[in-house]
Structure formats: structure tokens, C-alpha cells
Amino acid sequence: MESPVFENKRFDLNEFTGRTIKGVSFLNCDFSRVDLSETQFVDCIFYDRDREVGCSFRSAKLKGASFKRCDLSVCVFNFASALGLEISESKAQGADFSSASFMNVISSKSWFCSAFINKSNLAYANFSKVNLEKCELWDNRWTGANLAGASFAGSDLSGGDFTAIDWHSADFTGCDLTDSELGDLDLRTVNLEGVKVSRDQMSDLAARLGINVLG
């Protein structure tokens, strides 16, 4: 039996809310403003390889939604409400998360973020101006991602690949970076207050400055 395929389709606002969707292909589909709260997508494809286009989740409600083993390459998540969003073991190369919100604002001075993004390929994705503080973001590939104006303060970024990113463009204070590939991180120019790294990582970073760490 062939897997279901939706192509060039605009979905109704509550068509998938709270459902579990498995093994479905969505090619050039429009989820803009759709309520996907608590919806689970498993082994789904949202990338049209022939046309090299993804789906649009612009301004969608993604509170508590999850994507497991999905292909989200070049999908658009601009302005989505994504508190508690989970993306795991998925492809999201070139996906655009700029201006998406992972925050729950309680008052002008009280808020928190929640996201679980792990074991996924985020190469060349756009996270500009996104707040992902104190979130679970481990074992991801961030190669070449746009992190301009983003904040990851206090998040678990362990096991990540940060090759070819601009360390100056985002806030990494208080992050767990253990077992991560740190690319061209320069201790002299990046604020690493509260950051966790392993002894081997520290030795490598110090060696770039001509310092040998013993023991």
C-alpha cells in the first residue's frame, strides 16, 4: 500500500489538531495559521525534492507539536507559535524559523521558553532573532546556520556541530557545549560566561591561543 500524498494543498485550520499522522508526504502544502497544537507527525515528508520546495507553517500554532523522523528541509516557520515544539531525528536543512516564538510570556518581566530539538540536521537553517533560552537542543548539526540576534542562553547544546557559524551573532552564555564541534570559536572574542565544555575541548581552544593545558 502506497503512503498517502498531499500536493499543493491548503489545509483547514483544525484539520489535524491533536492527531497523530504517520508516513504521509506533504508536497508544497500550506499549513499557514493552521492549529497543529499537540499534533504528532511521524516519518512524514514535507519537502518536494523535484521542485526543491518545502511546506509553509507560517504563523501556525505549533504548541506541543512534534515532528519525529521527518523531512522539513527548507520549510517556513516564520511567526509560528511554537512553545514546546519537538523536532527529533529529522532533516531541517535550510528551514526558516526566523521570528518564530518558543516563549510563554507571563508578564513584561516574566517568561520562559520551551523547545526540544535533537538529533536533527539544521544546517543552513535560519534562527535569526529567535529566543531558545534554557531549551533542549542537543546532538544537532548547526553547520552554516544563521543565528543572528538569537539567544540560546542556558540551553543544552551538547553534541552539536557548530562548524561555519558566527559565534558573535548569538548569545551562548550558560550553555552546555560538551562534546560539540566548536568550529572557529575564539575564546578572546566570544562571551562564554557559564559555558560548559570538556577538558579536551578546553585544551583545543587554549591551544589555538598557544596555551598548553596539562593534566
TrEMBL record:
This is Qnr family pentapeptide repeat protein. The lineage of its organism: Bacteria, Pseudomonadati, Pseudomonadota, Gammaproteobacteria, Pseudomonadales. It comes from the Bacteria. InterPro entries: 5peptide_repeat, Pentapeptide-BTB/POZ_domain. It holds the Pfam family Pentapeptide. It comes from Pseudomonas muyukensis.
